[in-house]
Write a structure and sequence with these properties.
Blueprint: H1 5-21, H2 25-36, H3 41-47, H4 54-94, H5 112-126, E1 130-131, E2 137-139, H6 140-143, H7 171-174, E3 188-190, H8 196-204, E4 209-218, E5 230-240, H9 245-260, E6 266-271, E7 276-285, E8 294-296, E9 302-304, E10 313-322, H10 324-329, E11 338-345, H11 346-354, H12 367-370
Parallel strand pairs: 1-4
Antiparallel strand pairs: 2-3, 4-5, 5-11, 6-7, 7-10, 8-9, 10-11
Helix pairs in contact: 1-4, 2-4, 3-4, 5-11
Bound molecules: phenylalanine.
The site of phenylalanine has 11 residues, from strand 7, strand 10 and strand 11.
GO biological process, one term: phenylalanyl-tRNA aminoacylation
Pfam family, one: Phe_tRNA-synt_N
Domain Aminoacyl-transfer RNA synthetases class-II family profile: 114-372
């Protein structure tokens, strides 16, 4: 009954109650549509006033206009309130506690082999050794011939070699900038040891000299707990007028003492390498079984030590007095100069220092292993 002033009052209080109990902006907009939209209840009421007589129209008209004004006021108030509320609750979600300790970013570190290499380098450098480097792709000349291992020599079998296919007319490219092209055509390979750096260094630097050359080397052989197809060596060379094997022993014992930070038992064993005479193998007492060759398990049973191959010693380097033919290959007079050379297996050093029982772990990229260093 639009002409009933009571109806206006009821409509007004219904609309205001609804506005007040409204809890979100979407519902509020919907309310506005329902009351003051094109076909809203208040709109229709105001439109129907024309049908009333003058007295009624004035009375109800005033009430209806007031109701609309009130609706609009309440609507605006509520809208403001809801906007503020939504903003504040959004802020809650985004609130940043500037006093909270920062989340730690994962930080990498050097690979254990890099750490070992750096430690070894530092010790030798403190003893006056210079640092040299050579290519991983090497020529037959530097890897073998110049080291007194001619092509026909059975000693070449000591190093299982990855020979490289000869690229079309690009022999110089492989090792451009180096004096590799000797009289005969060269074959190329992945260096089987760091000893070719001895030759490269002596071609440039005249004795007396002391130098080390750490680097990666490659062997074409089956892998097991003690062998990998690529590993690291540190070559050492000292040449002077009266450098002897006694100097080598002193230097290497001092190196081990500093590297392992304790007295370490090493032994020299006669051995053969074509580029030294005499040659020796240097072994270290196995840290896994303390040189016993076996360990006792929980059940009290004897178990062979797999790290040292049950012998109690681990072969850690080859060494010897530089062969006169090697000195001749770099135009150095063996009657005037002499010295020693050695090649330490850096992986074996790492394994001894950190008690790693399988060399393959070092190349596995397994984070559970690497994160321990
Ligand atoms: N180059 C030898 C090897 O890889 C090690 C060695 C170096 C031996 C220097 C003697 C002198 O087995």
């Amino acid at each position: 009954m639009p002409n009933d002033s009571q109806y206006v009052e009821i409509l007004q209080s219904k609309a205001i109650t609804e506005i007040q109990s409204c809890s979100n902006l979407k519902d509020l907009e919907e309310l506005s549509h329902r009351y003051i939209g094109k076909k809203g209840e208040l709109t229709l009421l105001l439109r129907s006033l024309g049908t009333l007589d003058e007295k009624e129209r004035k009375k109800i008209g005033q009430k209806a206009n007031k109701a609309r004004e009130m609706f609009e006021r309440e609507f605006a108030k509520k809208k403001q309130h809801l906007i503020m509320h939504e903003f504040e609750s959004g802020e809650q979600d985004e609130w940043i506690d500037i006093t909270a300790p920062g989340a730690k970013l994962p930080k990498g570190h050097l690979h254990p082999l890099t750490q070992i290499q750096r430690e070894a380098k530092e010790i030798f450098q403190s003893m006056g050794f210079a640092l040299a480097d050579g290519p991983e792709i090497e020529s037959e000349w530097y890897n073998f011939d110049a080291l007194n291992i001619p092509a026909s020599h059975p000693a070449r079998d000591m190093w299982d070699t990855f020979w490289l296919k000869e690229p079309e007319n690009s022999k110089q490219n492989l090792l451009s900038g180096t004096a590799i092209l000797k009289e005969k055509p060269q074959k190329f390979l992945l260096r089987t040891h760091t000893s070719p750096v001895q030759i490269r260094y002596m071609e440039k630097i005249k004795p007396p000299l002391r130098v080390i050359a750490p680097g990666r080397i490659f062997r074409y052989e089956a892998t097991d707990a003690r062998h990998e197809i690529n590993f690291y060596q540190l070559e050492g060379l000292m040449i002077g007028k009266d450098v002897s094997a006694a100097h080598f022993k002193g230097i290497i014992q001092e190196f081990f003492k500093r590297f392992f930070e304790k007295e370490t038992v090493v032994r020299l064993r006669p051995s053969y390498f074509p580029f030294v005479e005499p040659g020796f193998e240097v072994d270290m007492r196995c840290v896994f079984c303390a040189g016993k060759g076996f360990s006792i398990n929980k059940e009290g049973q004897k178990k062979d030590c797999s790290s040292c191959g049950h012998g109690g010693w681990i072969e850690i380097m080859g060494a010897g007095m530089v062969h006169p033919n090697v000195l001749k290959a770099v135009k150095c007079d063996p009657k005037e100069w002499q010295g020693f050379a050695f090649g330490i297996g850096l992986d074996r050093l790492a394994m001894m220092k950190y008690k790693i029982n399988d060399i393959r772990l070092l190349y596995s990229g397994d984070m559970r292993f690497l994160e321990q260093f």
